[in-house]
Amino acid sequence: LFAIMIGDRLGHLLKRLLDEAEFLSDYGIRSLSKTHKENPYEFSYHGHHYTIQYEPGESSSSMFGGNSNWRGPIWLPLNYLIIHSLRKYYEYYGDAYTYEFPAGSGIKLTLKQIANELSKRLLKIFEKDDKGAFEYHDKVHPQWAEKHFKEHHLFYEFFHGDTGQGLGASHQTGWTALIANLLLEMDDE
Questions:
Q1: Residue-wise DSSP of 15-39
Q2: What are the DSSP calls for 105-146, one per residue?
Q3: Residue 101: which pLDDT band, with cuts at 50, 70 and 90?
Q4: Per residue in 64-100, pLDDT tens?
Q5: How many CB atoms lie within 10 A of CB 92?
Q6: How far apart are CA 39 and CA 162, in angstroms?
Q7: pLDDT of 142-161, one tens digit each?
Q8: 156-168 per-position pLDDT tens digit
Q9: How many Cα atoms occupy the beta-carbon half-sphere of 158 within 13 Å?
């Protein structure tokens, strides 16, 4: 009964987390649902009115320090914790628990397979596009095409929620380097 109850709650969480109209991006899990782009979250506190809306890149609000790495774009530590949790749940449920990935697609995967698919989406950020440039490089800066820089990897603070472009500080080798752990933890299927 306990396993059924936990599985049911997990399903409610996965329904929104794995929905491409909400948290699931081509580049991982967003920190804030994309539904808040059209329907901002609004609240009042002590006579002040606040609004939080989804912004895929840099925030236009100074409410959280000027960037939105905690609430909109792709943030690697958050994704790592989600993927790690899915792997732990898989250790308990095994192949008996499956869920649609993406939500609503009709394609059922185990939690381990979902974790691997999320890892692949994050790895996509670090792959090269059809022109040989890394996905996360800003396309308007020509230096990334020069021979001294085109193979140079950067570890951005966070990534654009819709394009995967690197944003914020470009030397976050602490948390963005978690991509290496995800690569090592992926299972071949």
A1: HHHT-TTTTEETTEEBSS-GGGGTS
A2: SS-EEEHHHHHHHHHHHHHHTTSB-TTS-BTTS-TT-GGGGS
A3: very high
A4: 555 544 555 899 999 999 999 999 999 999 999 999 9
A5: 12
A6: 18
A7: 777 777 777 778 888 889 99
A8: 888 999 999 888 8
A9: 24
* DSSP SS3 for 46: coil
Element (H, E) at 167: strand 166-167
Q: Which two tokens stand for residue 63?
A: 């409410």
The encoded tokens of residue 43 equal 């609240």
Strands 48-52 and 24-25: unpaired
Q: How far apart are CA 164 and CA 142, in angstroms?
A: 18
Q: Where do we find the tokens 């990334």?
A: 144
- How far CA 181 is from CA of 81, 92, 128, 149, 159, in Å, comes to 11, 21, 20, 25, 18
